[in-house]
Amino acid sequence: MQLAPMIDILLLLLSFFIISWQFSRSETELNVAVPTAQEGAEPDRQRGEIIINVLPDGTLRVEGLTVDLLQLHSKLSAISKQFKNQPVRIRGDGKVVYQRIVEVIDTCQKAGIWNISFATQRPAPAE
Q1: CA-to-CA separations, 116 to 11, 21, 89, 107, in angstroms, rounded
Q2: For 62-75, what is each residue's pLDDT tens digit?
Q3: pTM of the entire predicted model
Q4: CATH number of the domain at 4-118, out of 2.60.40.60, 3.90.440.10, 3.30.420.270, 3.90.550.10?
């Protein structure tokens, strides 16, 4: 039995999973400081989840691109037509105006997305 083709396939699969894992981690903007909550945590991401980052100045970033509310609506509308239970996670900075978060939620609902969650984190332990 020849092992070379099997090793090639395993290396390709391994590289695919490593690359796709890295892309999924890059969707979370590092300069977004999500609000703290006692029960806050980094929950497991759902498969196919869309992450909407709301930066402190109110800018929206989805999949590494800066979008406005109209672009977000068209993107989410197209996705919700294909996937009825599409999950969306909103990572709003703790300093962003609450009205901006409400606008994002409203845009999601207009696009047919109802499976919305919010990112939080636990407060830093007191030293």
Answers
A1: 37, 22, 6, 11
A2: 988 899 999 999 99
A3: 0.69
A4: 3.30.420.270
